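User: I'm curious whether this sequence folds into something compact or stays loose and floppy. Could you predict its structure so I can see for myself?
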Amino acid sequence: MRALATIAAGWAGLGLVGANAAPPTLDALTPSGGQRGSEGLAVTALGKSDPWPVEVWCSNPGVTFEAGEKAGIFTVKITKEAEPGPCWVRTFNQDGASEPRIFVIGDQREMTEDASIANDGPGEATAVGDLPVVINGRLEKSQDVDAWKISLKKGETLRARLDGYSLRSGIDPFLHLYDPDGVRIALGNDNPKNLDPRLDVTAERDGDFVVAVMAIASPPNANVTFHGAAGAAYRLELSVGNSEEAKMPEGAKRIDAANAAPLSLPIEGFGVLEGESGEDRVRFSATKGQSLLVRADAVGFEFPTDPVMFVEKEDGSLIREVDDTKSDRDAEYLFKVPADGVYTARITDRFGRKGEGMGYGLSIAEAIPGFSATVDKSGYVGKPGESVEVKLTVVRSNGHAIPLVIEAIGLPEGVSAEPLTLDEKATSGSLTIKVSANAKPFSGGFGIRATEKTEGEKPSKSESARFSFQGSDARGPYLLDEIADLWLTIPTKSGDNDKKS
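Assistant: Here's the prediction. I'll summarize afterward.
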């Protein structure tokens, strides 16, 4: 919650003049990211920013936005020390804030599509220069196709990674690769995690190749043409290297599934279903009464495997067969050990696939009770003299049964919230935020914290409550799925502006 302190006083207590306006909206940022060390990156905020200028909040303290003279245009500075990866950005004014959007900090050279230059097919492809490079583009109209020209040597492997769905841009994108003769030689669509495409293609000759980007809408609609919209931004990373499809994560420990000796807990490592049987058997010792979380993970590591896990006794009798969890196709089982002995976790693929790329991660360890809390909105509006209800949902895991205290943090002067206590079985509640009649106008961040209510000196665990963007239309994870930096707006009281003008 470090970022909250920066903006908590953003519009608090200022002498605001003029009629009430609407909060800004933010459909997309273009470019949707930048390289560390960038000093004067021009970024366009697509959406409504009237009246201009508006303020910008960013969850990465190494990134600053300065409003330019032209509405919607910012100059962005990214320090060399800025933490790489995705971060949240909001535009805001005295009347509220936009929905947060994703902005990505990277280390590679970046370029941004020039909308004034046609690049709608292989014959009009824009040359991108040396690889690696990250291209920031936008499919801004119906039937839009963006084409990018690259040079490859025979034997080089092109690695193309596109993030569009992951940016919450409302697209289900595709990648097409054309050879120097203009013949399509590869098509990339969904990756193992979500709707964004990946390509790993080895060039069979020297020449200029073209990577084309196109998309349909996500969620889908009745229109069968290629989709385009103002917010349909994407980031395309192009590099030359080895395919990652069959690679274990860096530093990964390979599980010896062929070892007849049972392994001691905890177990954490990776395997590949590459044997003749297409299955791995991992034997482990366990003690009666233990609660073990046994998990086979493929989605998180972008393996195509759809793991099915069988937990068996030493004599081969089945204890439990586990397939998909509620959220993805990975397998997870809370195993309450019935007796001292040796057990087996047998891993296969749902469709019987096997080979070098069919990897999985396996973890077997004591199940630690835990919880998470989500809220119903990412931003709230409270008028002076009124109250705001923050609805919470609590998910308890691995037998968690401890009361929780819910409290608001970072509230401005004149705004308060009595802590809410949830009993050990409660999975929902509502925290009331009271705005006093004399509370000053405010537009800034705050947070909700859930803390275990323990007795004596027993340590307690705290978690920030988050708003989740994973709704019913989601088709896999985004670059960021949740935000803990919530927003509170206290608008100017009716008539105040007239008195000050």
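Summary: The CA atoms of residues 29 and 45 lie 5 Å apart. The two ends are 36 Å apart (CA to CA).
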